[in-house]
Design goal:
The chain is an all-alpha fold. It is built from one helix and no strands. It comes from Xanthomonas citri pv. citri.
C-alpha cells in the first residue's frame, strides 16, 4: 500500500540518519 511505502521510506530515512536506532 502507498501508506506502508511512505512509512517505510520515513523509517529508512531515520534509520540512515541515526544508524541502528530509528
Amino acid at each position: 500500500t502507498p501508506m506502508m511505502e511512505a512509512f517505510a521510506a520515513a523509517y529508512k530515512k531515520c534509520r540512515t540518519k541515526n544508524g541502528k536506532r530509528a
